[in-house]
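Quick one from the shared queue. A colleague (R.T.) flagged H/ACA ribonucleoprotein complex subunit CBF5 as missing a structural entry in our internal table.

Convert sequence to structure tokens.
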Amino acid sequence: MATVARKMDVDYAIKPEAVTPAIPTSEWPLLLKNYDKLLVRTGHFTPIPAGCTPLKRDLKSYISSGVINLDKPSNPSSHEVVAWMKRILRVEKTGHSGTLDPKVTGCLIVCIDRATRLVKSQQGAGKEYVCVIRLHDKIPGGEAQFARALETLTGALFQRPPLISAVKRQLRIRTIHESKLYEFDNDRHLGAAKSKERSNG
């Protein structure tokens, strides 16, 4: 116990140095000669006049470079939600990393002002959907047959968005990386599944 108490009493603070340590450069390569003259190291902390620490940063600085991970409700479109955020936060620019259909709920990433330049990098990251599937009748093979049908929907597939979709209705290729069955009830004709995709154009 005495050893533990002694360790707790030790001060781990770095004390300022009175003398700047020397950097011997005599054996350095030719191009690095006098390198120690280019960079002067001080042994004490010097406050920087420009900028501030994260804890002292004002709210406006956080908002101007902010990214909001928003849980979009059903009915409003992605464009409407982004317009609401722009009006509420009183900022100049807002953008989102991917369109969600009006009836779809889920994660909508909203970028503000300076962060809007990151939108393109987020759009290529792909999306993950969790859906509830209602069937017309029982499946003779049950859950195993339903899981096999999901596996056939993996890989590069042709897709044309439905009439109710918010995006342009043209034939495109979707690459489904993973399809996973969460739950299946043959008596109620219901199934819950996850799909992870990335668009190819």
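The helical segments are 2-9, 35-38, 59-64, 78-89, 119-123, 142-152.
The longest strand covers residues 172-185.
Added to the table.
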